[in-house]
């Protein structure tokens, strides 16, 4: 486990929903520690038990060296990634640095087995480069320079033996990063349950679409929306981006990046919140599904109060849909789809460029429910 010199300090913890969670360190900080350990091993010709480095934000971290292999020409050290209490696919992975002194004073950094390669424009690194992001690249090189001095150079190769397997659990396949994980971290410290890195990954994916010339995009909350868009609407996978619960954030990003046309495809359980002006759809932030459904049914006129009370007592939109369909009040779905479009466009109305937004809602149980324009038109525009 990696530790900070004052591991009990409140700076090393974050509070989330009433829980005290320990912070950890990024793959970038871990790779820096492996690099420093390997250089010291090579120069001193003896293994290191621990290594102390500075994360990108200046925080000091002490790591145990898990594995060491060296001779007079090169050295390799492994450090275990410690993500703290974060739910991180890379937590516990061994990150290796293999170093070899050069004949000049250049410091060369590359990725080996299990470190991904960039294949698409729009990322921080150009196609063909290893997925070692600019901040960890800078920190690793600076730490190496401090170890070898100004007159010597070193070749550094970062590798993650389990990287290719772990990468399947990350955003890398969607971002066109192949063969492994990324070495990441703008601060060098992992904050448990932080949404910032997740949002950043979505922004990167959308930027890839823009770099290839797209000015239209289809947003889905998750796998259900993605499957419906592909299987029922015939929309190619290349047009789709998963926005998770971050509807408002992602809509603002579409405008910032210059998209002019957006289609939102989602299950009623998520998207009904947007119809009520809720743009962060996780249940921890808001849940007014019953209230929004009751309000729209009431606006139809003629719906008995007793029926509205029954809808208000429903725990899921699936049970609402069953009652609504049996009573013949399906018109409410169209009202909700129209309001999703209205609310989303209103959110972006005060800035340029203008973004035209349409919405399709469905149920996993009963299929298509409604769209903000005729379904055949949507298929024609987006297939």
UniProtKB/TrEMBL annotation:
Its EC number is 2.1.1.195. It comes from the Bacteria. Pathway: Cofactor biosynthesis; adenosylcobalamin biosynthesis; cob(II)yrinate a,c-diamide from sirohydrochlorin (anaerobic route): step 6/10. It catalyses: Co-precorrin-5B + S-adenosyl-L-methionine = Co-precorrin-6A + S-adenosyl-L-homocysteine. The keyword Cell membrane does not apply. Signal peptide: none annotated. It holds the Pfam family CbiD. The keyword Protein transport does not apply. Keywords: Cobalamin biosynthesis, Methyltransferase, S-adenosyl-L-methionine, Transferase. It is an enzyme of class 2 (transferase). PANTHER family: COBALT-PRECORRIN-5B C(1)-METHYLTRANSFERASE. Belongs to the CbiD family. HAMAP family: CbiD. This is Cobalt-precorrin-5B C(1)-methyltransferase.
């Amino acid at each position: 486990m990696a530790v900070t010199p004052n591991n009990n300090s409140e700076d090393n913890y974050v509070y989330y929903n009433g829980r005290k969670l320990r912070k950890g360190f990024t793959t970038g900080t871990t790779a820096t520690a492996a690099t420093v350990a390997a250089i010291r091993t090579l120069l001193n010709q003896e293994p290191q038990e621990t290594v102390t480095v500075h994360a990108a934000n200046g925080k000091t971290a002490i790591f145990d060296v898990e594995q060491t292999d060296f001779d007079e020409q090169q050295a390799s050290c492994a450090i275990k990634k410690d993500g703290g209490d974060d739910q991180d696919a890379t937590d516990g992975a061994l990150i290796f640095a293999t170093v070899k002194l050069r004949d000049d004073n250049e410091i060369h950094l590359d990725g080996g087995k299990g470190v991904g390669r960039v294949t698409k424009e729009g990322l921080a690194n150009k196609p063909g480069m290893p997925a070692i992001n600019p901040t960890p690249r800078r920190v690793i090189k600076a730490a190496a320079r401090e170890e070898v001095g100004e007159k010597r150079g070193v070749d550094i190769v970062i590798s993650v033996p389990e990287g290719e397997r772990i990468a399947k659990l990350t955003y890398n396949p969607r971002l066109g990063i192949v063969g492994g994980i990324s070495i990441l971290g703008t601060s060098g410290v992992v904050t448990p349950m932080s949404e910032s890195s997740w949002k950043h990954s979505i922004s990167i994916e959308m930027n890839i679409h823009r770099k290839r010339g797209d000015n239209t995009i289809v947003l889905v909350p998750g796998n259900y929306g993605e499957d419906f868009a592909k299987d029922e609407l015939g929309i190619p996978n290349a047009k789709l981006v998963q926005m998770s619960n971050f509807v408002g954030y992602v809509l603002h990003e579409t405008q910032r990046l210059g998209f002019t046309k957006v289609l939102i495809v989602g299950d009623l359980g998520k998207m009904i919140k947007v119809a009520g002006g809720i743009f962060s759809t996780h249940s921890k932030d808001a849940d007014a599904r019953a209230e929004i459904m009751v309000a729209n049914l009431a606006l139809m006129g003629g719906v008995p109060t007793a029926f509205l009370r029954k809808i208000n007592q429903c725990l899921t939109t699936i049970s609402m849909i069953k009652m609504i369909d049996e009573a013949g009040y399906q018109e409410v779905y169209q009202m909700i789809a129209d309001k999703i479009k209205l609310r989303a466009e209103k959110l972006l109305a005060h800035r340029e460029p203008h973004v035209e937004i349409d919405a399709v809602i469905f149920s996993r149980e009963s299929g298509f429910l409604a769209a903000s324009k005729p379904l055949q038109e949507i298929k024609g525009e987006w297939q």
